[in-house]
Amino acid sequence: MSAPASPSGARRRALLFWAFFAIGTVVLALAPLALNNYWLRVLTTVFMYATVTQGLNVIVGLTGYHAFGNAVFFGFGAYASGVAMTLGAPFPVALVAAVAFSALVAGIVGWPILRLRGHYFAIATVALNLAAIQLVIQVGGVTGGAEGLPLPLSDLPPGPLYRAIYLVMLAGMVVSTLLVAFILTRPFGYALRAIRDGERAAGVMGIDTTATKVAAWAISAGITGFAGGVWAYWITFIEPASAFDPAIGVKAYMMLILGGMGTVIGPVLGAFVLEFLSTLVWGGFLQAHQIVFGVLIVVICLVAPNGMLVAGRSLIQRWRSRHGAA
Amino acid sequence: MALLEANDLEIRFGGVKALAGVSFRVEEGEVFGVIGPNGAGKTTLLNAISAVYKLNGGSIRFAGEDVTGLPPHRLSRLGIARTFQIVQPFKAMSVRENVAIGAMFGHARLRTRDAWLAAADAALERTGLAPKAAFMPPQLTLADRKRLEVARALAMGPRIILFDEVMAGLNHTEIERMIDLVKSLKQAGLTVVVIEHVMKAVLALCDRIMVLNFGAKLAEGVPDDVVSDPKVVEAYLGQRFAKAHAAAGGAR
Ligand SMILES: Nc1ncnc2c1ncn2[C@@H]1O[C@H](COP(=O)(O)OP(=O)(O)OP(=O)(O)O)[C@@H](O)[C@H]1O
Ligand SMILES: [Mg+2]
């Protein structure tokens, strides 16, 4: 059994981690000066998925509630920002609308369905995703319905515009990661982890489990909605099938599993590794990339079911003990 | 005035009545024992009081107030703490963090991080878990896991604490230590309900005992009367216990 880590060692590791995080953020923020359009797009996509995965992390990783349909808030965020801009709102206001609307939906829908434990909630989120597609089509009008919704074009020329979107997506990834780190130090974060590890005990120890879960889901939805809101502006045309594409949620789930559920940096690592891999696979196996990707998922689940951080650590430990240098 | 008062509690699972109209009162400062055969409804009774299960009938008063239907977290902040027969530690948190959760959310008054940690450390000290504060729950022995349940409840600063078989699976020495702990709680003015199969502990601790059988109250009273009640001997204790107890001239 491993001895409990000494507090000073833990503090040193945390300092090192945040130093890396700060350097990485600065490097990525300056990178557009050197990147071509292709890599700008790849990285913007990575940041987008890292943000969606961080949103998923809040409800799945921290709270232990599987939300298979969580990417529904990506769609709600995209549509909230799309509709707001169509109505004349500037982009920053549209982003606020995307976050607020997504969080609001989670708050309202979460109140009844988060009382359900375990699988029922997971299924209900999938149903919500399917319902959302129908809803947008039925509402029509300002959402564009089944025809889709073209967003107003930006005044910026493409170069600066794409760099701006890159930076906003990067901000989404960085801020959502900082938010998760902050939550974990607060009583709210302890409440989430307590619910994840034993909801019944959490309740009798004084945690208002329903309110806490709803708050967690609203935060999760807000983060996811932000990514959707930026995405809508980026691609300038959204339709129900692309905004509420279940594949977004599946990919985020894989990134979360790969990176490590409930960790601060796992979603970011998972997004980088999987999105780069998927870009490579996409290029190399244009025909078979779904299959290759599927096999990849299975391999991840078998080799690193607790994420690559845990897998890496236990690999190092095994290597050390074999070489006697404990 | 009774601190806890249960009237006609009823809990059904499908067609089965796990609790079929149970009433009792626990006076402030006493140790109240609940015994009975496996499946009698003891744990269900605890779940009913702590609102883990919804009542199908009946009402509960605590400290003079009607608390029927309040959610678990509200009850805990009013001062009702409990342990779980099947221990339920937060396995991804250290022992100290586990206990601090009780102070953080279940304590009616503590507001600062320092106060939560101080309450946690006091509870760890009291239960003898202090040397293992930095352990993770999977590293604990069964006896220590039971202590962790107790420490978490204590950190909530409760007025009443409900123990569900905290002695089950412990060895002789560990049982003695747990008995001493419960005695010290009573001395400190806490009201305690103990569900227990370990009769030695029940007799050493309880001011009064209630016997449950098939979800109903079979007997209630001071220990000596209850354990010599023929109904109780037949339903639960058995002849051997009764003879041994009589031969010893009662427990005290
Ligand atoms: N969640 C549940 N669903 C269905 N039946 C239940 C549930 N909980 C308890 N029961 C049933 O209610 C009855 C009482 O169970 P309970 O756990 O309260 O007994 P107990 O007196 O605590 O027994 P033990 O001494 O073995 O702990 C049993 O028949 C049990 O099977
Ligand atoms: Mg029981």
TrEMBL record, chain B:
Keywords: ATP-binding, Nucleotide-binding, Transport
ABC transporter domain location: 4-239
Pfam family, one: ABC_tran
Coiled-coil intervals, chain numbering: none
Top-level taxon of the source organism: Bacteria
Transmembrane parts of this sequence: none
Gene3D superfamilies reported in the protein's UniProt record: P-loop containing nucleotide triphosphate hydrolases
GO terms for MF: ATP binding
Official protein name in the record: ABC transporter ATP-binding protein
